[in-house]
Write a structure and sequence with these properties.
By secondary structure, the chain is α/β, with parallel strands linked by helices. It is about 40% helix and about 15% strand.
Length: about 240
């Protein structure tokens, strides 16, 4: 049986690790991208090690102009791309420094675009090839004090919708998962009162888990979603519909 390879960018983060676990259970060999957190990647590889599955760590800074090229050079066979790298900035637009703005644009817009462009030839002709981006609820509805992040995640959603139409006849399906409040490091800056308010605002009354996001990504890469493309699947407990 042919090995299937998936690239997960941002595999060292909470959602990235959950996606890696889910895809490994499905038999995928994985390219595990990270920037600085090599410890998390090493621990993840030790956890996922099993016969028949290759685990390939790839370090690259996608917040640098040429960072995506380093990642592309380490990838050979490929069947799926999960665009999951990212960070957020919480603060007023007037307080953002230009270097932070440029780094976030590279990380959330330029690098995913250029990375996808460079890797597309490896997906052509592959059976059930797919691309899934992990975007955000704020790309759908916008968030005060996360204006740039919201703009870039909205851009990712538009990228997914447009690319899905361009690649549909090639048999490559392109979708996104837009998580709401998920229990990862991105919520560590919020205090208990903040989290309580968020939970009260979510119809399901709780924070989501990385596994719940990973389940959606897994579904969108599976044959069970063979007639689904160009969709932004909200995983947010009903917070925004």
């Amino acid at each position: 049986m042919e090995k299937r390879f998936a690239l997960i960018t941002g595999a060292s983060g909470g959602i990235g690790r959950a996606i890696a676990r889910k895809l490994a259970k499905q038999g995928y060999s994985l390219y595990l991208h990270y920037n600085q957190n090599s410890k998390a990647i090493n621990e993840l590889m030790a956890e996922l090690e099993q016969p028949g599955i290759e685990l390939i760590p790839l370090q690259a800074d996608l917040g640098e102009k040429e960072g995506y090229k380093k990642l592309v050079n380490g990838i050979f066979s490929l069947h799926a791309i999960v665009l999951n790298s990212g960070n957020s900035y919480f603060g007023l637009i007037s307080d953002m420094k230009e270097e932070t703005i440029e780094q976030m644009i590279l990380l959330h817009a330029s690098s995913p675009f250029l990375l996808t462009q460079a890797l597309l030839p490896k997906l052509y002709g592959q059976k059930n090839a797919g691309i899934v981006a992990v975007t955000s609820i704020w790309g759908q509805t916008g968030a005060s004090c996360e204006v740039l992040y919201s703009m870039l995640k909205g851009g990712q959603n538009a990228f997914i919708k447009s690319l899905s139409k361009e690649l549909a006849l090639s048999g490559i399906r392109v979708n996104a998962v837009a998580p709401g409040a998920i229990a990862t490091g991105m919520l560590e800056s919020f205090n208990e009162d903040d989290l309580k308010y968020i939970k009260e605002d979510i119809p399901m009354g709780r924070i989501g888990t990385p596994d719940e996001t990973a389940n959606a990504v897994s579904f969108l890469l599976s044959p069970e979603s063979s007639y689904i493309t160009g969709q932004i699947l909200a995983v947010n407990g009903g917070w925004y519909t």
